TrEMBL record:
Pfam families: DUF2388 (PF09498). This is DUF2388 domain-containing protein. Keywords: Signal. The keyword Ligase does not apply.
Amino acid sequence: MPRTLLICALLALSAPAWAGSFAGTSAGASSAGSSASSGSTSDDDKIVLQARDDAASFVASEGRIRGAQLEAALRQLRERHPAAREASDLQLAQAILAQ
């Protein structure tokens, strides 16, 4: 299952679940996979995967450090996944790290 689908599943859950273990989100991942569009590609996954270091810096600095790769991933997630439009930057960064 593409990583972007997993992020959508994480976004569907409450914020405390994002901080929890990835195992706790596996049920949401299966339902997201059945309803998500097939527009996600491995390029999407690559952009999100490359943003992990930036996401870690963003979370650790409480939003003060914003890297270019994180910005690209946030933009892409919001363009392709409606649930991501409702989430804060911090919530999305935490979801990226939870993968």
